[in-house]
Amino acid sequence: MVNTILPLLALLVVLSRQIEATDRPNIVLIVADDYGFHDIGYHGSKIKTPTLDKLAGEGVKLEKYYVQPICTPTRSQLMTGRYQIHTGLQHGVIRPDVPNGLPLDEVTLPQKLKEYGYATHMVGKWHLGFYTEACVPNKRGFDSFFGYYIGAEDYYTHIREGGYDLRENYKVATEYNNTYSTVLFAAKANAVINAHNKSQSLFLYIPFQAVHAPLEVPASYVEPYKSIYPNDNSRQTYAGMVTCMDEAIGNITTTLKTKGLYDNTVIIFSTDNGGQVRAGANNWPLRGWKGTLWEGGVHAVGFVHSPLLPKQVQGTINNELIHVSDWFPTIVEGLAQGDTKGTKPLDGYNVWPCISKNDASPRKEILHNIDPLTIIHEGKQWQNSSFDVRINAALRSGDWKILTGVKGSVDWVVPPDSGITPIQPVVVKSQVLFLFNVTADPSEHDDMSGKYPKVVDMMLEKLASYNKTAVPCKFPAPDPSSDPKLHGGVWGPWR
Q1: DSSP calls for 390-410
Q2: Residues 6+ apart with CB under 8 A from 448
Q3: Which among 175, 188, 176, 172 has a CA at the least distance from the CA of 492?
Q4: 99, 133 contact by CB (below 8 A)
Q5: Neighbours of 409 (CB within 10 A)
Q6: What are the b/e assignments for 223-242, b being 16+ CB within 10 Å?
């Protein structure tokens, strides 16, 4: 009798796990590249984003949501749930010719989701290293990959610095030359959705190339903005790129509905950093832009949309503190009903109760970064500080935000043709430390470091404590062996 019952119990356990796997929601994670804080309809922009406005308006808008100031660091924290000081990616981005990547001993989000039965697919920009094949998306947890490895390229030719970069899994996909990437990536994402077996939960990661430079888009998308921004050709093209991306996301959403997946899907939208104001973007009313630790570089557009959200939070604004590193535990624990065992210590939090129930965020601080390779040597030190304030760093703790190793000349860029008079910051040449109450002063107008020196001391002690946990920064020199000329005119693994 016992011999009969034990196999039966084992079978029931297996079947229950399979049933649980199909009950887990599908997750579509969309990332826009270099997308300005001001450049979405519900932030008052003249750029047309009807799809994003509708999805956000029916979901939960995350209005105290933060990312990193540049591409690679945001993507690394998204994939691992860990601050860049803990992965050695504190400085800059991973350039195409540099032998660097997301450390191979880090557990990635798709790897973790596969433990819970998810099919994992990626369409778009990787930018987490490819110098060895072990670094590429197919080796880091994705069942399939269509996209490019590097950080930026031509939208039509898919070429950068003499090298072509577009792949379908490991194969170089040369047949898509002269196909605009936003349209192409949406089509490939739709193909993944249409081919998906509904008995399995889906994780689809779509990091668009848009709206990163170069400024390129089919002319039909530019035309409506010539009268809106008559004096700014870059803004016209950028706006067209945004609208094209918005349309692509609308097409993907429609496919989810047609396929019958939408009702069990959670859509997460995020930018990777602040907008590049020299390439058409705008972050008004925030100070700064892409590449800076000011709010314009890190305060992001983000929202969650899903019919699975409780009715009481649909159509609401969430003002709880959330960071891009939180998506790893939020997706694994909050959505996939799993756990984060087997990972290195996470810096992210499961904020699904915060998003779905309007609970208080467990996050009280955000370490924006500590970059030991970026130092303003002529900067004025802070007396008796446990942290070298000439080092480029920033920390948010409660209402307070401290920036070190920065120059006060970073200003506020007003929306084009808005008629708003630009504000000029007061610059003290040797000052490299600033303190703001970003709850009361989200646009960082009033430096409070002189008025609250004890708060500065407290914040510097926190930075020093974080810095003690940092691993050495990995930023190797370019490797000539990476040259596409040595590899058939293609960017790809060379070691």
Answers
A1: TEEEEEEETTEEEEES--TT-
A2: 435, 436, 437, 455
A3: 172
A4: no
A5: 10
A6: eebeeebeeeebbbbbbbbb
71 a catalytic residue: yes
Do residues 88 and 60 make contact, with C-beta atoms less than 8 angstroms apart? Answer: no
Residues 21/197, Cβ–Cβ less than 8 Å: no
Strands 316-318 and 60-62, how do they pair?
A: parallel
pLDDT in tens, the chain (495 residues): 545 444 444 444 444 444 355 589 999 999 999 999 999 999 999 999 999 999 999 999 999 999 999 999 999 999 999 999 999 999 999 999 999 999 999 999 999 999 999 999 999 999 999 999 999 999 999 999 999 999 999 999 999 999 999 999 999 999 998 999 999 999 999 999 999 999 999 999 999 999 999 999 999 999 999 999 999 999 999 999 999 999 999 999 999 999 999 999 999 999 999 999 999 999 999 999 999 999 999 999 999 999 999 999 999 999 999 999 999 999 999 999 999 999 999 999 999 999 999 999 999 999 999 999 999 999 999 998 999 999 999 999 999 999 999 999 999 999 998 889 888 888 888 999 999 999 999 999 999 999 999 999 999 999 999 999 999 999 999 999 999 999 999 999 999
- Burial readout 355-386 (b: 16 or more C-beta within 10 A, e: otherwise): bbeeeebebeebbbbbbbebebeebeebeebe
Which one is catalytic: 38, 71, 244, 305? 71
Global pTM exceeds 0.90 = yes
Give the dihedral sign, CA 35/492/77/60: positive
Q: How far is CA 142 from CA 119, 122, 135, 196, 202, in A?
A: 8, 7, 12, 14, 11
38 is catalytic: no
Q: Which of 127, 158, 196, 368 is catalytic?
A: 127
Task: Say if CB 206 and CB 123 are below 8 A apart.
Answer: yes
What's the CA gap between 253 and 234, in Å, rounded? 29
Single-letter amino acid code for the residue at 429: K
Rounded Cα–Cα distance for residues 486 and 491 (Å)? 10
Two structure tokens written together for 433: 């430390």
